[in-house]
Each structure stands twice: as structure tokens, then as C-alpha cells.
Specification:
By secondary structure, the protein is mainly β. The chain has one helix spanning 21-29; strands at 8-10, 31-36, 41-47, 53-61, 66-74. The chain has one domain (8-79).
Length: 81
């Protein structure tokens, strides 16, 4: 997921928890954990610019060559492994 330049779209729902766009993109480029869900979403935990972790839900829009980030929030300790 490191080739995100120009391919990542941050949707309004991803901004709901107040994570800055620059931190969301940094987390997408620097994942610690990546899992693929049964419904086709990508769940990732990545680091923000300050090193704190953020949870992401991403939809890989293959048809348009985009990653749509639909959720971002500070990582819950229960999600870190």
C-alpha cells in the first residue's frame, strides 16, 4: 500500500474522528498491520506522523485505480497485535 501518491481518496466519513488528512495518508503508506475482510474491505493499522497508530478501513476501487479511505480513527488497543 505504499504506492498511494495520487491514488488515495479520503472520503468525508474518514474525517469523522478528526484524524488529519496528512496523518491518514501517512498511515496508509506506513502500515503495521493489514487484513482483508470478507466484504472486500481492507482493514489496516498504520502510524501517523507522530508515531501514534490509526485504524483505517479502505476500499480498493480497482476499476478506477483508487484507494478510497472510508474510516480513520485512533487505534484501539484491542486492535493492536
Amino acid at each position: 500500500m505504499d504506492d498511494t501518491e495520487g491514488r488515495a481518496i479520503i472520503t468525508p466519513s474518514a474525517r469523522r474522528h478528526g484524524v488529519p488528512d496528512a496523518d491518514i495518508l501517512h498511515a496508509v503508506r506506513n502500515p503495521r498491520q493489514v487484513d482483508f475482510t470478507d466484504d472486500g474491505h481492507i482493514f489496516a493499522i498504520g502510524s501517523q506522523r507522530d508515531g501514534a497508530f490509526v485504524e483505517l478501513v479502505i476500499v480498493d476501487d480497482v476499476a478506477n485505480g483508487l484507494l478510497r479511505i472510508i474510516h480513520a480513527m485512533p487505534a484501539r488497543t484491542t486492535r493492536l497485535r
